[in-house]
Write a structure and sequence with these properties.
Layout: H1 2-11, H2 14-31, H3 49-52, H4 59-76, H5 79-94, H6 118-122, H7 124-136, H8 141-161, E1 163-164, E2 167-168, H9 181-197
Helix pairs in contact: 1-2, 1-4, 2-4, 4-5, 4-7, 5-7, 5-8, 7-8, 7-9, 8-9
Length: 200
């Protein structure tokens, strides 16, 4: 949906818009959790234990959905998509299961630094989605302040607790336990988002 929305915006080609709308409606209907407004990691039975305890909700897919719904709303000029993206963004920033008590994004942080799970690499996608929502909704001052504050918490944790020189750890709570590719990749979207929301 996100790529199709960008292609529809850039080219004006209707085929990309049609694909983006079909995908967006599928995600909205089948993958957005009605209780939390967050995106599920896969299509599963609604009564499964994983879904009930929240472990099936995906921060990186939620980030991609926020980005895609935001771009789609700009292409279609449909405020329904914009509202969905903003509601999803607010829910993601406030979803306690994904954060420490002081607001640091804490996805898979309890795993060993050498654990090669992609979820830790992709957790920065939430910050990228929030950055796009921020950039496309600057008129919504209270929302933008919330996004700026949230991303600054992530940046400060990453920069102060999970870094040595120019190397970033996978656990943003700190302390830094050594270089790992997952830490570097996850840091990229957060660093870029921090620059964007602080107008640096």
């Amino acid at each position: 949906m996100t790529l199709s929305s960008y292609l529809a915006e850039c080219t004006g080609d209707r085929k990309y818009l049609e694909i983006a709308l079909l995908t967006a409606n599928c995600i909205k209907t089948w993958m957005v959790d009605v209780t939390t407004s967050l995106v599920k990691d896969c299509l599963i039975d609604a009564l499964s234990a994983k879904e009930r305890d929240g472990s099936i909700l995906s921060s990186h897919l939620t980030g991609l959905a926020i980005e895609g719904f935001t771009i789609l709303s700009c292409v279609t000029r449909d405020d329904g998509w914009r509202s969905l993206a903003i509601d999803m963004a607010r829910s993601a920033m406030l979803y306690g299961t994904w954060h420490t008590s002081d607001g640091i994004l804490n996805i898979c942080s309890d795993r060993a630094a050498s654990d090669d799970t992609n979820v830790r690499t992709l957790k920065g996608l939430l910050n990228r989605g929030l950055m796009v929502a921020y950039e496309r909704n600057r008129y919504n001052v209270s929302f933008c302040e919330l996004v700026r504050s949230y991303i600054n918490v992530q940046f400060n944790a990453l920069f102060e607790l999970a870094r040595i020189q120019d190397s970033y750890g996978v656990d943003w709570r700190g302390p830094y336990v050594g270089p790992h590719a997952h830490g570097q990749v996850a840091a990229l979207d957060t660093l870029v988002a921090a620059i964007a929301v602080n107008d640096v």
